Amino acid sequence: MRFIDRGKTKSRTVPGPQFSVRVETETGPPIVKTIRKNVTVPIDGIQITESDGNRWPLPKGGAFIDSGSEFYTQKTEVLPPTVGHTLLHFKGKAIPVVSQDYRVSGNFMLANAWGANGQVFASDTTKRHLLAPTFTDLSSTRAALNVKGSIAIAAVQPTNQIAQAARSVGELLKDVPAIPGASLWKSKLRAAEVLAASAGEYLNTVFAVMPTITDLSDFLKATHKVDKLVDQFIRDSGRLVRREFRFPKEMSDETIEVLGYSPIGSTMDYNNLYPEPSYALPVYKTMRRRVIEREIWFSGAFTYYMPYWYETGNRSDRIRLTAELLGAKPDLNTLWQLAPWSWAAGWFSNSNAFMKNLSSLIQYGTVLQYGYVMETTTVTDTYFAGDKVRDPIAPYSGMFKPPYPAVTPITFRTTVKKRVKANPFGFGVSWDGLSTAQQAIVAALGITRVVR
User: How many CB atoms neighbour CB 268 within 10 A?
Assistant: First the structure.
C-alpha cells in the first residue's frame, strides 16, 4: 500500500552478500571426486521510493511558493556486503563409520537469520526464495506523525504564550462570553472565519460546558521579558516566520534468542547442507540483537497579523497586546485545559495541542505557509551464534580437528524516511472525514472550511 497518494514509485536493488556452498566427496582408491551440492544465492535488499519529484533548488527571484510534498522511502539492506570464504576438509576415511572424505567450501558459515526457512532451504537448495531476507518496518503511522506535528506546532508557533492561563483558575466573570473569542479579531489573512455568537451556546447546550477564566494577577510576572517578546511579535507580523522543532531521539537495544540453530542449515543433530560431516562440528543457538533508532522533527513557516485594533506607538494598545501575549486573556487553549472536554479526545490525535493551534489561528489569523513533519526510523537486526547447544558427536568428531570455523553474523537493516505535509490549519485536520456533528463542533470552536 502506498504511503503518499500522488507521484511516482521507483525501486532498485540494494546488492548484498552471496550465500554459496559447494560440497565435494572423494572416495578411493582409485580416487573419485564427486560434486554433491553446488549452489549460490544472492541475499539482496531493495529500496522503494514514493515521491512527487519536486524541483530543487527553486528558481531565484520568484515569489515564495511551497513546492514541497509528502515523501516516503524504505531501504532494506543486508550486511556485511561480502562474507568471508570458508574451506573445510573432513577426513571421513580416517574413521570406520565413513567411507569418503568431504570438502565443503563457500560463504555458508552464516548465522541462521531465516529460522525454519533456513533449515528447509538447506534440505532443498532449489527453493532459493526461502533465503529472501525478512525486514522489519517499525516506522510511525501517518496518524502518529500527525500527533507529533500538532505538538511541534503548539511548541514553536509565533503566538506561543509565555504563561499558561490554565495554571491559575479564577472565577467566572459574568460579562465574559460562554466561549471566549465569540467576538474575535479580524485578521488581514482571513484564513479562518468565525461562527456567530451562538456557537458558545451550542456547546453549552450539547455538552453542558460552562468555561471558566483565569485570574489575571498571576500573569503580570516576569515583566523583564516582556519588551523583547512584544518587539519580536510586532516585528514578525506579516512576515514569514520559520521554525524548527526536534523531538528527543529514541533508541532501544534488545537481544533475544530466536527460532533456529546456527550456522544456517543446522538442526540439533546435523546440518542439512552437508549432513554426514556436520556431525563433526558444534551447533549453536541463534541470537538476534535489535537496535531501533527514531528521529522526528518539524520544519515550517508561519504567517500571522496584528489584531485589527492595534496601532503602532499606542501605549494602551501595547499594554493590551502584552497582557494577551502573557496569557492574561482567556482563550480556547486555556478553556481546554480548565475543563475536561473528553468528548473531543477521540477526534483529533492530540486534543491539547490541537486546541492550542486553534487558539492561535483564531486570535491572530496564524496559518502555515508550509509545514512538514519528518521521520527517519532505522531497525537493525543482527543475527549471531549464541551458546553452544551440541558438541561434535563421536566417532564423527575425528573427521575434523579444532579450531572450529567461526559463524559469521549477518545483519538485516531497514531504514524508512517519511515526510508528512500539513495544510494551513495544521496536521491531521481532515474535513472530509468529519461527521456533520463533528463539523458543527469544530465550527463552533471558531474555524470553518476556508482552506483545504
Answer: 8
Q: Provide the Cα torsion 58, 61, 64, 65; round to 10°.
A: -40
Total-model pTM: 0.73
Q: Are 412 and 78 in contact (CB under 8 A)?
A: yes
Measured CA to CA, the distance from residue 165 to residue 337 in angstroms comes to: 9
Whether residues 71 and 212 share a domain: the answer is no
One DSSP character per residue, 163-217 reads: S-GGGSB-PPPTTS-SSTTSSPPP-SS--S----THHHHHHHHHH------B-GG
d(CA 375, CA 138): 11
C-alpha dihedral, 217 to 219 to 221 to 222, nearest 10°: -170
Tens-place pLDDT, residues 37-82: 999 999 999 999 998 877 666 667 666 667 778 999 999 999 999 9
> Residue 276 sits in which domain range?
8-138+251-294+381-417
Residue 193 domain flag = yes
pLDDT tens digit sequence for 159-188: 664 333 333 323 322 333 333 333 332 332
Residue 361 lies in a domain: yes
Clarify whether residues 370 and 304 are in a common domain. Answer: yes
What is the Cα–Cα distance from 429 to 371, expressed in whole angstroms?
Answer: 13
CA 432, 438, 440, 445 torsion-angle sign:
negative
